[in-house]
Inverse folding.
């Protein structure tokens, strides 16, 4: 009998010691009643339960789990909201402004960054961290930065000018490099059909020869140093080149008439 009593007493003490050392989940009530902190798991369960941080009357911030599918952060009021400003699915997706984020980070609304390091950064899908891309703003302009090449690829100025390969576009669209396209359409006015009007003063070939000898370029066509310094307007230069082609066409027509007249005169002379 004494042996059985001793054995039972030993088992009771062992179970009590194990329970005392086990991390039994606690509630806010048990922690509050003891007036102590706890390093054990804290469980909140039931309807609109959650961790409520309150400042002043009615100003509350909640961390809760409205359903088994996601955790919600944010909200106001005396009870945990159906969803908060930030919602984390149990699969790891995080949503701001949505309880159904379709990606690792899903925002419904605007994203605002500020400060000297404010930027939207993402990694290349194949190169990963070796190539980071950034959208950032500086000095009133926005830039797309290539982390691998360590230079800006696109610049958007606050006046609307867009640059590719340049940080200071001087026009609405500036490219420092080659443009490849299947078609480029330029709209313009003043197409040189006026060359074929009867009142057009066609310069003689001798006049053109004298101008070229003195200036080393055709009349109305910019000189080499002007193009090197200022570039050329595609629409304008095409109009000027077409004007020269049309003038040459008129000269060829006149020369053909003169040649035919000479052939006719020669034929009559030979027949005499």
């Amino acid at each position: 009998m004494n042996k059985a009593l001793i054995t039972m007493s030993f088992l009771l003490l062992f179970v009590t010691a194990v329970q005392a050392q086990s991390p039994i989940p606690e509630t806010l009530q048990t922690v509050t009643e003891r007036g102590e902190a706890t390093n054990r798991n804290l469980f909140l369960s039931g309807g609109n339960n959650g961790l409520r941080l309150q400042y002043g009357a009615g100003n509350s911030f909640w961390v809760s789990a409205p359903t088994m599918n996601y955790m919600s952060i944010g909200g106001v009021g005396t009870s945990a909201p159906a969803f908060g400003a930030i919602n984390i699915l149990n699969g790891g997706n995080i949503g701001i402004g949505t309880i159904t984020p379709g990606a690792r980070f899903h925002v419904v609304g605007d994203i605002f960054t500020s400060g000297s390091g404010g930027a939207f950064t993402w990694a290349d899908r194949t190169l990963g961290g070796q190539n980071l891309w950034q959208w950032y703003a500086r000095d009133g302009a926005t830039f797309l930065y290539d982390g691998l090449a360590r230079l800006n690829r696109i610049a958007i100025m606050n006046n609307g000018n867009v640059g590719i390969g340049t940080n200071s576009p001087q026009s609405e669209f500036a490219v420092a490099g080659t443009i490849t396209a299947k078609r480029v359409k330029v709209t313009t006015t003043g197409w040189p059909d006026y060359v074929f009007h009867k009142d057009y003063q066609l310069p003689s070939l001798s006049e053109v020869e004298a101008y070229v000898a003195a200036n080393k370029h055709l009349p109305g066509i910019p000189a080499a140093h002007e193009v090197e310094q200022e570039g050329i307007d595609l629409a304008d230069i095409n109009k000027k080149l077409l004007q020269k082609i049309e003038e040459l066409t008129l000269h060829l027509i006149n020369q053909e008439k003169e040649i035919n007249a000479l052939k006719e005169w020669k034929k009559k002379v030979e027949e005499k």
Residues 17-22 have pLDDT under 50 and may be disordered. The chain has three domains: 2-107, 119-175, 192-271. The chain has five helices and twelve strands. The CA atoms of residues 131 and 148 lie 5 Å apart.
